[in-house]
Specification:
The complex is a heterodimer of chains A (about 325) and B (about 250). Chain A is an alpha/beta fold. Chain A contains 11 helices and 14 strands. With about 250 residues, chain B is an all-alpha fold. Classes of the chains: A alpha/beta (about 325), B mainly alpha (about 250).
Amino acid sequence: MIKVENLTKRYAGQTAIRDLNFEVGQGEIMGFLGPNGAGKTTTMRILAGFMPATSGRASIAGFDVFERSLQARSRLGYMPENVPLYNDMRVTEYLDYRAALKGVPHRRIAERVGDVKELCGLREVERKLIGTLSKGYRQRVGLADALVSDPDLLILDEPTIGLDPNQIRQVRELIKNLGKQHTILLSTHILPEVEMTCSRVIIIHKGRIEACDTPENLLGQIRQAGGVVVEAKTGKDDGAEELKKISGVREVITDHDEGWQIFSLRVESGLDVREEIFRLAADRKWTLRELSQRRATLEDVFVEITHSDQAEMPI
Amino acid sequence: MRKFYTLLVREVRSYFHSPIAYVVLVFFLLVSGVDFYFQVSFMNQRPASYSVQEAFFNSVFFWFAFVLIFPLITMRLFAEEFKLGTIEPLMTAPVRDLQVVLAKFFGALVFYILLWIPTLLYFWIFQKITQQPAANSSGAYWGSYLMLLLLGMFYLSVGCLASVVTKNQIVAAIISFSAITLLFFLGLIQFILLDVSSGMRDALGYFSAIEHMGTYSRGIIDTRPMVLYLSMTALILALTYQAFQSRKWRL
């Protein structure tokens, strides 16, 4: 659906994105991750035909986004960051206008606009001026606009930014459902969102793609895959030494909290050592108040990738 | 064509969504109403060799209101889209740059025409009350309103160009106001600089909006100003189109 080859964009004096290469297949939900200023919006704007790249190619459904921009644009629904809208129009009026502009046949406009209003929960504000809407509703109008022509591809730039937790959950559900029929490229820096919705993830940092894989594989790659936290009273035993003897435990960090010892264990990925720890504690008559496994999250992957070169920098 | 029509309808509607339209309408009808009133009172005092209609379209009041309305009508056209960022959803929809430029120009033109329609009432009321013709011939009406349309197209295109080069509406208004005033005074130089050669004077006379209105409001349809204004409008719209396209490279 999307094909990007050696895409580079230079602004005066700086390179926003450098040699990007990726593909998004039909029906995929691709998450686009990166810190602010990594080049996410730039890439999306190029794909949406809003600005040309300095070099390289990008195509949507086989149409070059620059040379055959009109055909490419008619196949996508784009929701820009911060959702700029005409404040002087009413919700239904705006969506009618957008539908006509995107070439929805005249007799189908009312039906399509009705559908997207229903889907995005805009019924109760349909007669309101856009300028009077809250951030959450504006966001939904933007999403409804992207959907109104029923495009094959949705490009959503930070669709949940500025929403409250309930709204984020609603939008996430919506995106998940949309993913059944549409190809979606969405950018965000809210990581649980990506883990929950996306089938694949691209991590972009300083204009380069640092990783591109499924969330599961990315988690598998990470060095400190997981850990176990044990809080216990070990009596005379040296708890840390005992725990280190369990196979698969690489490192134990000890901490204290009012007579309790808190052990943070680093464990080889894929291993679950909790059962053995329980047996050990039972044998040695330790008093145990917590035994929990901390799963590695995409956040760890993200931090590891995007922080790596900062750590190398001389201070 | 359907997309152009969709864009055009939005442009025209958006005038009436904002207070600007009503302010411009009130200001304009007030000044032109006062103009009309004064012309009638003047002619009441002494015999005149011209008609009310001619006097109306050639007075200082008329020109004063005339050059002021263009910046007000055109300043927001592109500048507001750039400022609010709505240019992004607009230009990522499958529309051509040319469709957008033309829709904005013709949207402004439709509003400009709507602005002038009520002035027809002045002449109608005059004739009803005085039982005398307001103009010497019906051709004089055609002439003056045709010249209004031609001048309007030219000055509106200048306003479009001013609005496309900035994201600040005030800056757009100042640029178009200065440009339109300069273009307007180009035709007046012959009266200000008295020592210019007669050839120069004639040449500058070709650009004089006042002179064009003078002949057209008598019902004389000269094709030279028509060619001038239509070609200038086309030229400036072409420049506007180029400037609009250049946004992609300036980003």
